[in-house]
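In this supplementary section we document a worked example of the pipeline. Step one takes a protein sequence of length 216 as its only input; no multiple sequence alignment statistics are reported here. Step two produces a three-dimensional model, which step three serialises into structure tokens for compact storage. The input and output of this example are shown verbatim.
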Amino acid sequence: MARVRVRQHVNPLSAKYRQPLILPEWEKIYLDVNQPLHLDIGCARGKFLLQMAPLYPNINFLGVEIRKPLVIEANEQRDRLQLSNLHFLFCNINLYIQPLLGSFPSQTLEGVSIQFPDPWFKRSHQKRRVVQPDLVQAITDYLVDTGSVFLQSDIREVAEEMADNFLTNTGFQKQHQDPWLQENPFPIPTQREIATLNKNEPIYRMLLKKRNPSHQ
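The serialised model returned by step three reads:
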């Protein structure tokens, strides 16, 4: 199959990406919808999840991506691999994080990953960045008490802003003493991670756990 060519960056605030969210019936997507759920925000072509899903059949994986052609391509690959614990969804996550997470059985969201999101360097464009306070609060609301969030970027400014947004929310605490996590906790690296490491450039990673309400 020919590789789909799409724009690297799209403006999530434009009218084109504010169309209503169409949610599938999850019982028809996943073999067992009550399994723990891992949400990967900004999954691009989905290669990370396409390799993770076979390794962890007892976890349901959901990749969310704003570029629809990539979602179609990833789901076609999922079908070829016959993975019943994986789905890719076309979604503007900052608009629809609450209804999306609310459509799953309660107490199933156990993990979230946000890896190498679009940096949007211009100050006037930074409101387009994916990690905003409302997104963090929604994840706090739906993540199970033992749940975790993994962040990584090759842009220090972006990593620091993501970390600040999560740590400002009292629902999260960092799981390592060093400012940044040295190793990826997952066995599968993303394509961007591989490319960055091959150039011997730094990656800024952070692992957060949901704070126990009794300790807040």
